[in-house]
Structures are given as C-alpha cells and as structure tokens.
Design brief:
Keywords: Cytoplasm, GTP-binding, Hydrolase, Magnesium, Metal-binding, Nucleotide-binding, Potassium, tRNA processing. By secondary structure, this protein is α/β, with parallel strands linked by helices. Helices cover about 45% and strands about 15% of the residues. It has 3 domains: about 5-105, Gyrase A, domain 2 (2-Layer Sandwich); about 125-205 and about 380-440, Four Helix Bundle (Hemerythrin (Met), subunit A) (Up-down Bundle), CATH 1.20.120.430; about 215-370, P-loop containing nucleotide triphosphate hydrolases (Rossmann fold), CATH 3.40.50.300. The two termini are about 20 Å apart. Bound molecules: guanosine-5'-triphosphate and magnesium ion.
C-alpha cells in the first residue's frame, strides 16, 4: 500500500489561515482520528481537531474531504484549514505523523501523485509549477493555459494521429502477402505524417516567445567604462541597485533586476564596462559582460554623449542593439541636435535629470510585447517541449525520406516520432526528467 503523505500546503507561518493536506489510502483514517468522523464529501465542515491519544483539542478547523479518484491527486485527500500559528501547525503535523502509514510529503509529491494517477500530464505539471512561479500577468496567463492542457492536449492528439498512421502501415505489413496492399496504405500514412509535421513546425516557429515569457526578456546594458550604465539602471528601476562611481571599472559582477513592464517580465542586466585591463578581477567582469551582452534578447549600448565618436557595439548583434546616449544634461545644443538626428534606435537620456528615461521604458515595454507576443498563449514554453517536438519532426522527416523503401522502416520512424510526443506528455520513459521537474516544486504542492 502506498504511503499517505501530509504537508503544510499554504505559505510560511504565522498567517491567518494555514492549509494542511493529507493524501493517500490512510487519509480517511487520519480525518477519523483527528475529527472523530469522516465529514460529507466536498463540503466545508466546521470541526474541532483533537489530539487522537488524549482527546485534547488542537484547533477549530474547516475540514474538506475529497474521496479519490475525484480528488486533485486521484487518491483520498483531506484538507484541514486551521489557524495559521506555528504551534497549531506543528501540533496538527505531529498528530498526523502518528497516524499509521502517514509520513511528511516530499517537495512536489502531491503533484507527482496526480501525475502518476493520470490526473495531470507532464505539460500540465509544468504549467502548474509555472503558475506558482508566475510574477507577471502575461506569465500567469501562459501558465494557466498550459495547466489547462494547451500543449498537452495538442501533443496527445498529434500522438493519436501518429499511432493511427503507424497502424495503417503495420496493417499493410501484416497483410503483405495479399498483393500491393502496403503501397496503398503507406501513401495515406505518409500524407498524415506530412500534415502533422506541418502543424508541429508551425508551432515551433514562434520566435521562442513562450520560453521568453517564462524566463523573462533579458535586456543587457553594456558599453565602455563610465558610460553611465549603472546610473541608468538605477534610474530605470528607481532604486540604488548598482554601485555608481566616477572611477571607471566600478561594476564587476553582472547585476540583475527583474521588472514587470505592462505584464511582461523583463530582466535588466548591468555589466562591467568593456575595456582591456590588467586587473584579473575586472578582466573576469569584462568576460562576463561580453557573455551577457551576447546572450541578451536586447542590448542597450550606452555611450557618453560627450564622446564625439563613441565606442562601437560588439558585432553579431544585428537587430538587437539600441544605442543609448547618456549624460544628456552635460550636452550643448549642437551635440543634442546631432544625437537627436541619429535615428529611432538612438535614445538620448540623462540619469541625473531623468530626461528620456520614460520614453526608453515605454519603448522597452513595446519591444517586450512584440518579442514575447501579447497575443495568444504560445504552445511551447520550455526547452524540453522544443526538444521533443524537434525530435518528432526529425523522425517524421526520416519517415518521409524512407517512402518507397521497406515499410518497416517508415513504421519504425513513425513509432519514434510518436515516442518523442509520448515523452513530451510524460507517457513513456520519462523517469529521468521527472525528478528534474518535480524538484522545482515546494513541499505541500
Ligand atoms: N552629469 C551626469 N553624470 C552622470 C550621468 N550618469 C552617470 N554619470 C556619472 O558618470 C560616472 C560613471 O557612472 P556609472 O553609472 O558608475 O558608469 P558605469 O558605466 O556603470 O561605469 P563602470 O561600472 O565603471 O563601467 C559617475 O560619476 C556618475 O555620477 C548623467 O546622466 N549625468
Ligand atoms: Mg557600472
């Protein structure tokens, strides 16, 4: 018999209310011991929880009884809503620990049971983790769509169609002693595979907006030392996140600040000024700065407005660089006019007076909405999804290339394509990824 697990599922005490969940075959026994009876299913019932050994009251609680399989985990589950004091919670957990077959849950174990019982596929599990981790509106919407099966249902439908196509060919192989049947069956199977391939390729061609939304759009501030990168960052986020000084080479480590720009998550990264240096610590900072600039979704290339020519941003960032001219407060009219005519991707700013900062932030918000896509939620929200779908497409390509050859090869490639989709939803050999995914959860979820 499986263990019965219990945990505090609500946030850190003390709080007004704490939710303690119990799930597993002994959940009914646990509620009987603490409450004296099993309350009506799926109704909030007011009850006194008692220490089973002594009968001493622990707290007055709302008790919710969800008999399996129609529960979140699929097993019998009880939820106690108690007063959220530390001693109350400790007493309830201690009493549960003395119920035979009950033990504290591990991180993500309730959700793991829901997965094992077929209540959630793997993409829904990931959606749930993302919903708990969502910081912005757009992230919340995307996570909720994933929890609702946006990708999971689609992938399962694709998988069923693949199984159908594979079955056509395998039927042909079985009847191959009856003249010409295979050829007639391989054609329709490959046509179905080609249609599937087109749908999957379309889903992949999304500019990675789902993954971007999950991770946040990364915007790096880079440029020569003393350009005013840290000052601009502080002004943009309205706090002293980074150290500013008149000494060139002040910033060493990259400094990250997370922002919510109109519901879009944006991570601003301040970096060390780029220059040749003998100082080994600064040199490491410069190396990191180059890495962050190269990996950023968007690079703000800062340069002091008083420098007539200015430094040139690194190569290979075409279309991802905006020039930000700093210290506008120190410029005379001629210099201002010159910069003002430098094009739409040039922003004239002053961290001292705040000039140009609001316009820069608005431009960033618009760019984030474009890059992340404010429209329909994306199907692909994790690298794992992308890898599985790419593997599916590769197998479908091999199946198509095998047309005209032995049917067994085509059937095998279709099977491999279906297997990649099966892994995506967590139906086949996923033990290795499960631990990684459930590790992200907190205890009690
Ligand atoms: N007048 C004026 N001075 C500024 C402005 N922004 C920054 N400074 C000054 O420029 C100097 C360098 O600023 P930082 O923000 O530390 O420059 P940085 O690019 O982060 O420099 P490193 O970290 O050394 O690469 C400081 O003395 C700032 O006070 C501005 O808008 N106007
Ligand atoms: Mg700095």
């Amino acid at each position: 018999m499986a263990d019965t697990i219990f945990a505090l599922s609500s946030g850190r005490p003390p709080a007004a209310i704490a939710v303690v969940r119990v799930s597993g075959p002994q959940a009914g026994e646990a509620v009987r011991r603490l409450v004296g009876r099993v309350p009506e299913a799926r109704r909030a019932t007011l009850a006194v929880l008692r220490e089973p050994a002594t009968g001493e009251p622990i707290d007055q609680a709302l008790v919710l009884w969800f008999p399996g399989p129609a529960s979140e985990t699929g097993d019998d589950t009880v939820e106690f809503q108690v007063h959220g004091g530390r001693a109350v919670i400790a007493a309830v957990l201690a009493a549960l620990g003395r119920v035979p077959g009950c033990r504290p849950a591990e991180a993500g174990e309730f959700t793991r049971r829901a997965f094992d019982n077929g209540r959630l596929d793997l993409t829904r599990v990931e959606g749930l983790a993302d919903l708990i981790g969502a910081d912005t509106e757009a992230q919340r919407r995307q996570a909720l769509a994933q929890l609702g099966g946006l990708l999971g249902d689609k992938a399962e439908a694709w998988r069923q169609r693949l199984i159908g196509a594979q079955a056509l060919i395998e039927a042909g192989i079985d009847f191959s002693d009856e003249a010409d049947v295979p050829g007639e069956l391989v054609g329709p199977a490959l046509a179905e595979a080609a249609a599937l391939r087109a749908e999957i390729v379309a889903a992949l061609a999304d500019g990675r907006r789902g993954e971007r939304l999950r991770d946040g759009l990364v915007v790096a501030l880079a440029g020569p030392p003393n350009a005013g990168k840290s000052s601009l960052l502080n002004r943009m986020v309205r706090r002293e996140a980074a150290i500013v000084s008149a000494l060139p080479g002040t910033t060493r480590d990259a400094i990250e600040v997370h922002l919510d720009l109109g519901g879009q998550p944006v991570t601003l990264v301040d970096t060390a000024g780029l220059r040749e240096t003998d100082d080994p610590v600064e040199r490491e900072g410069v190396r990191r700065a180059r890495d962050r600039a190269a990996a950023a979704d968007l690079l703000l290339w800062l340069q002091d407005g008083a420098e007539p020519h200015g430094a040139v941003p690194p190569d290979g960032l075409a279309g991802r660089v905006w020039r930000v001219v700093t210290k506008a407060d120190l410029l005379d009219e001629a210099a201002r006019t010159r910069w003002a005519g430098a094009g739409t991707d040039t922003h004239l700013t002053s961290a001292r007076t705040g000039e140009g900062i609001a316009a820069l932030m608005e431009a960033l918000e618009r760019a984030a909405a474009t890059l992340i896509g404010a429209g329909d939620p994306a199907l692909v929200t994790r690298a794992r999804h992308r890898a599985a779908l790419e593997e599916t497409v590769a197998a479908l390509d091999r199946a198509a290339a095998g047309a005209g050859g032995p049917e067994e090869i085509v059937a095998e490639e279709l099977r491999l394509a279906g297997r990649a989709l099966g892994r995506l939803v967590g139906r086949v050999d996923v033990e290795d990824v499960l631990d990684v995914i459930f590790r992200d959860f907190c205890i009690g979820k």
